[in-house]
Amino acid sequence: AIGEAADRLSTIRNTYGPQSVGFLGSTKCTNEENYLFQKIARVLFKTNNIDTSGCFSGQPQWAWMDHRLGGRFRSRPLSRIEQSEAILVLGSDISQSAPVAGYFLKRAARKGIPMVLADPRKTELASSASLWLPLWPGSDGEFVNGLAALLYQKGAPRKELIDTSGFDSYRTALAAVDPERAGRITGLGADALQRAAALLAGKKIAFIIGGGVLQHRHARQVLDALLNLALLTGSAGENGAGLYLLASENNLIGAWDMGACPDSLPGRQPLKDEGVRKAWEHAWQVNISPDRGLDAARMIGEIEKGNLKALYVLGENPLRSFPQPDRVRKALASLELLVVQDALSTETAALAHIVLAAAPFAEKGGSFTNLEGRIQTFEPVVPPRGDSRADWEILGQVAERAGAPGRPATLEAVREEIRRLVPGYRNLPRHSGAGWVESAPAAGPIPFMPIEPLAHPQPEPAYPFTAILVGSRYHLGSGTRTTRSERINALNLTGCVQMSKEDADRLDLAEGERVRILSPWGSLDQPMHRSPDLKPGLIGVPKAFNGNEAMKLIG
């Protein structure tokens, strides 16, 4: 099977060119495996068409923030949150999506650190917050800019050690921001913004940013506004203050660091930088295309156009994790070759021409990098079952069959190459243990960004509700793996659409009654739960449950 996969991928590349082949890596596979996977794509198949599901879960926004900070954005230990003077949580039901991080927030609140929670839903964290602000979905940018205007009036900026530029232009734009207007757009009112500003004024702030921002269509504008606010308040440095972006998958950061993305090489180094490319070309003894590859979303589009002929999927289930699953199914079914390498028989594997049976993490060695920047190295607990093999071993054998010189890679050889070549990973542990990604050196002043006007589309008559996709602490990502857990299934959890009591009464809907939710992209049927935590006009749609059919509603 390995030989057939390598031979057919090579034939398609030789027939149609490097742009005809795509590689979809995994935020659940190890650093070593993602490094090997992107190296196979770039060295053996001459393509930068390499991405992960992080394309849909906020990974590009991490890259954007890294770009804004001149390559200096690194995660930091969550324990440092308790060293901040105030906390602002935006776009995150953290007790469900990242409960370990939520623990640190609750502990900080118990120590008396003021915490402002801005979220359309009254989540579990609201009981620990000093102030809960039920802002309207999509109005985060207006909220942050309105808050910045009020804090500037109250005495910001605070002196910051980080070098900045462009403050005069930002200050001029800030003077034109109307907090009253921001209060109307967010649905909070000016008084609520004033209360938030009073809690945060004069303090260095830890900004906790979740998927509600990172996965939003205006994510980059909101992140720009947040970084401006961090610079304005002297909160972009150390001692707990600064931006904490929450990763949605266990190795999203590691996959990005290893170069499993279409526009950067390992170590978050930009592909377009000629000096960076030359260094990697020397290391790998190969020419690397300077052209940005296809991300996961564009891969689907190029399959539909007939340009992408083959796709190699490593540890990912796009039929369950991507938006518009019916469209994705039709696209994947039209490929000349679909290779799926996974530990589970997934919906995507059922479509594949070739399936390579991989071992789960407990049956192999490797390392993950968590959202703190902690590198966690582990060894196998038990051997692989049946004929399955570790992903890194399969990839090494695919590479050998596809023409890689030398013997198939060993795990330690891959680790040593990462230590030697990937910036920040010089201290990757050799066996079980933990290390930290090294910080990048300072690279010039951080600019304040212009304040951009944001569009605020109003609900159409045909779609009068605004949906929020709601996660559960019991399920990881799309639920491909966690829905197979006997212990979780024994809890008999049911995914229900959540609706305000006012809307349920108006529509004469009883608790548990099935409702149909329609969007411009698809529909689903689920039971309805009357929730006291939602405003009228909002509905909560559970992720991961019922085949993760929530993805049918988004485009």
Q: Any key phrases for this structure?
A:
five-stranded parallel sheet; globular; 17% strand; alpha/beta; 555 residues; 20 helices
Detailed description of the structure:
There is one protein chain. By secondary structure, the protein is of the alpha/beta class. The protein has 20 helices and 22 strands. A five-stranded parallel β-sheet has the order 2-1-11-12-13, with helices on both faces. A five-stranded parallel β-sheet has the order 5-4-3-7-8. A five-stranded mixed β-sheet has the order 18-22-19-21-20. α3 packs across α11 and α6 packs parallel to α11. The longest helix has 15 residues, at 2-16. It is globular.
Assembly classification: single chain
Mean pLDDT: 92
End-to-end distance, in Å?
35 Å
Percent strand equals 15-25%
Spatial order of strands in the largest sheet: 2-1-11-12-13
How large, in whole angstroms, is the Cα Rg? 24 Å
State the helicity in percent bands.
Answer: 25-40%
Instruction: Tell me the number of helical segments per DSSP (H or I, 4 or more residues long).
Output: 20
Structural class: alpha/beta
Shape: globular
